[in-house]
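Here is one chain, start to finish.
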Amino acid sequence: MKRLLLYDKNMNQLGAAADATDIERQRRVNSDYTLSFVVPMSSDDYNIAQIKGHVKDDRSQYYVINDRSRKREGVKRMVQFDCMHVMFKLADFKFPYASYIEEAFGVNIATLLNSISAATNGKFSFSVDDKFDLQDIKDFGRGNCLQALNYVVEKYGCEVEPDNFVIHLKKQIGMDRGFQARIRKNIINVNFKDSSRALVTRMFSQMKDGLTFIGLNASNLTQEEYDLLNAVPGAIVGGIIKVNYLISPYAGYWSNTTNSYYDGEIINQEIEDPLELLKSTRKALREQEVPAIEVPLNVADLHKIDREEPEIFLGDTIRMFDSEMQINDISARVMEIKEYPYDPGKQPDITLANYFLRDYDDIIADLDKAKQIVTDIISGGKVRTSAFENFAAQAVHDINNSKSEVIYDPRGIVLQSKVDPNDQVVLSSAGLYITLDGGQTAEAALTAAGLVAEKVVGVLGNFITIEIGSGSNVFKSDQQGIYLGNQSFGSAPFRVNMAGELVATEADITGMIHATGGSFSGDITAYGTITGGTLIGATIKTANGGTRVELSSSGNLVGAYLDNSNYNIIVPNYNGSPAYVLVVGGGQKGSLSASGNGVTLFSLGTAFISASSDIELNANGNVVVPNWSRVYGAGNIQSLQQALDNKVSASYVDSNFATNMAFDQSTRNLKLYSMSGSLLATVNIP
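Its structure:
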């Protein structure tokens, strides 16, 4: 592409910037991505180029026209257009409150990037080109989408490579393409600076509320870190880290008669996890354990005239050779490129460094400086003047409007209220105290002996260990949990671990208990009503002994007891089927059971069926008895069989029943005869 192309705010092409000169593009890792150009005010290009319009460069990247600077030099009237890459339009999208994350654990980077993309209605998308570890997230989504992206970059340690509205995230952009910068070949100008001002060989650290990683298991250290700390007496005791610092492997090289170590410290109030603090300390030490190298380099871009020559890309690692400047095969990354893509006579200026501060925060502050006071006044090791002026102006305003004044008296430094002189904060070498009566009494005091206050209001932080008392009469809280009554968590009679699992020897609870499960041993006494649920494997009695109803898990029995010798029980398996068993005097007297043939009522003694009215036997089939000899009338005098036998015997019939008769007309007598012919009776009929 020979010329810059101009587009309107809707990205409709308007034409080419034919009269554009001094076209300069500046890119920096995780920072500036700008383009500027100059046109005459008399040119048509000036009338075409619009504020919030767009330009497209030779890399097919779009930039937003943000600023126009007009200047006159005699009769010449020129205007400079300053543009930023379209990626920074993310600052124009407010991150929605509904997507704000107060706290989450083990979050994938894609989850946060997808929420940013959704906040832009899909206009921006993200490509994660490397694998990033899951991270714990806190307070994500305040402000705009560029701030949200910056949070992701800092949290996951990414580097950003935008391709218009598709933003690539990598662990490190660029690569080693074999580019070499050599004197008398392509080096035009070079400045070589190495600085040990920020050299650190022992890095201390603190997190929220002044806590450290003291108390972590030493297994969290690398082998190199462990060996270096273990060489320090008391640094690791019983496999536990007892110090809040890491030592550089280069400490021995840099040590001298004055300094055994070059100490540094990081304090990050956003970190609450000791393990995360250890990782942050490790990273900070690696960045500062060698002298910082910065090499502004002006090289001939041979790629412009010979396409076989390697091209320099942002983030690439290159090698430098200039023995006269004591640059002997030094490798460093291209952290910044200022190039002139449309002017073959101008060579790019590159800045090489072994470490550069990321400063999207600075860019966000610049974009948003009308809305907030800039707090990050350092950018790439240089003081950002405008930010410093804003900061200083705010500081002066705060001091002038303060409601306190500073007094030096024999007690020490006194902060005294302008509203009430009796309200004071007194600071001396012995400690600090707060008074409301001019120093007569102290409302609160802090000395080497400890803190004294009537009450402490607020959150008391994230301590490694809290201990009250001594010996077995102790309350302790540490990374294992909360426990009382013993110095050891596992032996304490009362303890709660971090998973919420409670162990207690005795509890008197007056309120409600809500549980999803549990187990009991020993006696349980309940007053009131037990409602709902399922009881399995229990014995339930209406009384502990004597007359009672009992459901027993032993034998799976249900029984009604007069006493332990006289009772009725339901047995689940009685000769292969459930049965109702009756026990009197300790012995079984009968049962009622069922089988495939029907229902059996069995008595080991006499079975009595009694009714105050009739007894009816009603069957669709037969009523069966073993034989009629087993059926007796009242008094057991004669069986039914005996009665039947007597009714039908021949002698009985012969002597008692008339089978023939004869009538004598002369005498008018009716004579009755038996079967054998014997005269049984004579009846005269008149």
